């Protein structure tokens, strides 16, 4: 790697570390009482004494029940079986602190509004009232943003630019190879020799690039007047203030919503105008996977959540693995830092589900897909408790705290992990 690429990578990592400094959306003790606990521990004896005094201060505040910063739960609305967060700051917090959910109009991070504002040039947006009378065709006039106000490009834009550059590189390389073949055959013309030299210089310079990409302006190839909005974009911009209407929301998986409620207690689940407790939420999530009026011990949601909670408690960032045909993806830190290392498939114990629950043809297909993207395939076998044992805990919990009851319930599930690898005879010979 070139020195410049290494420097840019370090700068990007520092920027990401600052944004995603918290692995979970919880308020730490220092933040709760307004005490800075980020003092480096290795600043000599005075630094250590200062650090320990701050810890004692936090402990005293906690014991004396000193007024602390009140945590505001994040509202999660349940509509048609979908758990959605539509408040922008809450969406950002859940993504930056634990990578929960997915923006429905984005690849992963909920940045549709940011990308659309950049596309429509709405940064520092101000509608000119003097132009209202002349705006006969209904085109909203928007003030262009100053260069200093331009936002950093979103990851989607950078990815698109890199793909365009790679496509252009492959096209030029193919043309060069065809000309080289003609040269070896002695069929090349003088003009083609000049073109071959130009292509060769282009490819050499491209390989020397520092890894940066050039983002073309949205209006570079457009015939529209700069500063004017397309007619089809008018419906997402308010006429009075020229502000962009937020169309995107953050969609949570059922296991994510239950984890945020049961394990972290950082959200308020709103269903049909009322707030759901942990037990009611458990019943609702199980009903999404089964029409049975009673909760069964081997309900698919319970099996999925046990595995999700297990890996989250081990420090892994757990995301949906549907794009690779699995249940979960495991990241060491999160999607912006590196690719997922493992794909997880949740499998119920055969003694309960029966042998037919395992489709070996499907399992082989999944293994080929996972192997093709250079990931490890993990099978997690979940052994559910007997239904009688499950009912004794769930139905006889009158007066018991919901959290303690669910904790006792989940502790009855057992997990076994197996790494699945395809046997390749040519690589495993003696």
TrEMBL record:
Q: What class of enzyme is it?
A: lyase
The record describes the protein's role as: Constitutes one of the two catalytic subunit of the tRNA-splicing endonuclease complex, a complex responsible for identification and cleavage of the splice sites in pre-tRNA. It cleaves pre-tRNA at the 5'- and 3'-splice sites to release the intron. The products are an intron and two tRNA half-molecules bearing 2',3'-cyclic phosphate and 5'-OH termini. There are no conserved sequences at the splice sites, but the intron is invariably located at the same site in the gene, placing the splice sites an invariant distance from the constant structural features of the tRNA body.
Give the family from UniProt.
Belongs to the tRNA-intron endonuclease family.
Domain tRNA intron endonuclease catalytic, which positions?
301-384
One family name in Pfam for this protein: tRNA_int_endo
What domain of life does the native source organism fall in? Eukaryota
Leader sequence residues? none
Q: What EC number(s) are associated with this protein in UniProt? A: 4.6.1.16
For this UniProt record, the keywords arranged alphabetically read as follows: Coiled coil, Lyase, tRNA processing
What is the protein name stated in its UniProt record? tRNA-splicing endonuclease subunit Sen2
NADP listed as a keyword: no
Coiled coil ranges: 155-182
């Amino acid at each position: 790697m070139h020195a410049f690429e290494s420097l840019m990578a370090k700068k990007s990592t520092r920027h990401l570390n600052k944004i995603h400094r918290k692995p979970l959306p919880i308020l730490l003790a220092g933040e709760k009482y307004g005490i800075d606990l980020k003092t480096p521990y290795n600043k000599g004896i005075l630094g250590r004494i200062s650090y320990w005094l701050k810890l004692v201060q936090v402990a005293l505040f906690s014991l004396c029940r000193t007024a602390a910063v009140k945590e505001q739960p994040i509202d999660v609305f349940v509509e048609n079986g979908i758990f959605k967060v539509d408040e922008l700051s809450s969406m950002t917090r859940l993504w930056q602190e634990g990578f929960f959910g997915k923006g429905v109009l984005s690849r992963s991070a909920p940045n549709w509004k940011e990308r659309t504002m950049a596309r429509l040039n709405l940064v520092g947006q101000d509608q000119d009232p003097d132009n209202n009378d002349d705006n006969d065709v209904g085109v909203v006039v928007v003030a262009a943003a100053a260069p200093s106000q331009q936002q950093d490009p979103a990851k989607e834009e950078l990815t698109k630019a890199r793909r365009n550059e790679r496509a252009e590189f492959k096209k030029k390389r193919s043309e060069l190879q065809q000309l080289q073949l003609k040269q070896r055959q002695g069929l090349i013309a003088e003009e083609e020799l000049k073109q071959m030299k130009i292509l060769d210089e282009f490819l050499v310079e491209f390989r020397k690039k520092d890894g940066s990409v050039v983002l073309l302006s949205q209006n570079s190839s457009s015939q529209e007047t700069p500063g004017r909005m397309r007619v089809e974009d008018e419906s997402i911009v308010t006429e009075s203030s020229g502000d962009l209407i937020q169309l995107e929301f953050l969609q949570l998986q059922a296991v994510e919503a239950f984890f945020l409620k049961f394990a972290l207690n950082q959200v308020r689940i709103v269903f049909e105008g009322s707030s759901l407790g942990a037990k009611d939420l458990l019943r609702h999530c199980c009903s999404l996977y089964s029409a049975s009026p009673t909760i069964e011990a081997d309900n698919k949601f319970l099996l999925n959540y046990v595995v999700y909670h297990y890996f989250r408690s081990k420090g892994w960032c757990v995301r949906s693995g549907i794009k690779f045909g699995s249940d979960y993806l495991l990241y060491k830190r999160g999607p912006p830092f590196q690719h997922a290392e493992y794909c997880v498939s949740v499998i119920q114990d055969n003694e309960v589900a029966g042998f037919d629950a395992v489709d070996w043809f499907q399992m082989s297909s999944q293994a080929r897909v996972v192997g093709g993207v250079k990931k490890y395939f993990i099978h997690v076998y979940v052994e559910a408790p007997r239904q009688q044992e499950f009912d004794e805990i769930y139905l006889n919990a009158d007066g018991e705290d919901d959290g303690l009851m669910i904790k006792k319930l989940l502790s009855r599930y057992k997990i076994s992990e197996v790494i699945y690898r395809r046997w390749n005879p040519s690589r495993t010979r003696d």
